[in-house]
TrEMBL record:
This is LexA repressor DNA-binding domain-containing protein. InterPro entries: WH-like_DNA-bd_sf, WH_DNA-bd_sf. It comes from the Bacteria. The lineage of its organism: Bacteria, Bacteria division WOR-3.
């Protein structure tokens, strides 16, 4: 899976979660188990999405990079704008 595909999947997971439980955060373990990626790969991509303003990370005082993630309003707008999502994070396996 490419980084673009992984970022799309992360955003879609967070979007789905938000529509069902707006204040729930997805944990790193939930991401790695669902997406089948290592923590290192997840961290790289989730930090990228955070720095772009698409996700918000709940960070611990020390230790892991994050303990929970949720989508931001900017991320919701991106997921709902399929054309823009395809430009920024193309599905490379078409």
């Amino acid at each position: 899976m490419t980084n673009h595909e992984l970022r799309r999947k992360i955003l879609h997971m967070l979007y789905t979660c938000f529509t069902e439980h707006p204040y729930h955060r997805i944990t790193p373990k939930e991401f790695t188990e669902s997406l089948g990626v290592t923590q290192k790969v997840l961290d790289f991509n989730i930090i990228y999405l955070e720095e772009k303003g698409y996700v918000e990370l709940q960070k611990p005082l020390e230790g892991s990079i994050f303990v929970g993630a949720r989508i931001t309003t900017k991320g919701i707008d991106l997921v709902e704008d399929t054309n823009q999502l395809n430009v920024l994070f193309p599905n490379d396996n078409k």
